[in-house]
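Can't paste images in this forum, so I'm doing it all in text. The chain is below; anyone willing to post the predicted structure tokens underneath?
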Amino acid sequence: MADDGRSPIGRRIGGTQIVSRVREILTVRLPVVIYVLVGLGLLVQGIRYLGAAELMPYHLAVIQTSWENLSADDQQLFLGLLKGFGAGSFGVGLAIILMAVIPLRGGKSWAFWTTPAIALTYTAGLVYVTNFALLPGATPIAVSYVLLGLVASAAVSSFFASKTG
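Text version of the structure:
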């Protein structure tokens, strides 16, 4: 069968249409997927910390003691701080997901700067806090850098969508 320049579904696709489709995928769909992944990661982290019964091993390594050696007051304080961080992570993760799948995917112009602003601010803060508070090599440090990198790539992509759309 000769190649007649038609797509597998039988309609002709021009070069401009292909470029437009690729631009949409890279500047709208890809950032939405990335923001949803980041949001899910933050939701999981939030749920993990909200459900924690004691500090994580990487937290205990910083204070150089076991959970059992902490006084009841110290345990209550640390768990409160951990659950507060978990609540914040859960809330920001949910907000990022909702902003990505509703206004950003819908092409709302304000979402092309507010979604990256919220996501970049929070993940950059995570990088700072994990580097400040945890020992080098702790898993959350690497995770926070990954989240920030993903958000930065989505922010750049959605920035170009705001300039072309």
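Helices lie at 15-50, 57-63, 72-104, 111-133, 139-164. DSSP finds five helices and no strands in the chain.
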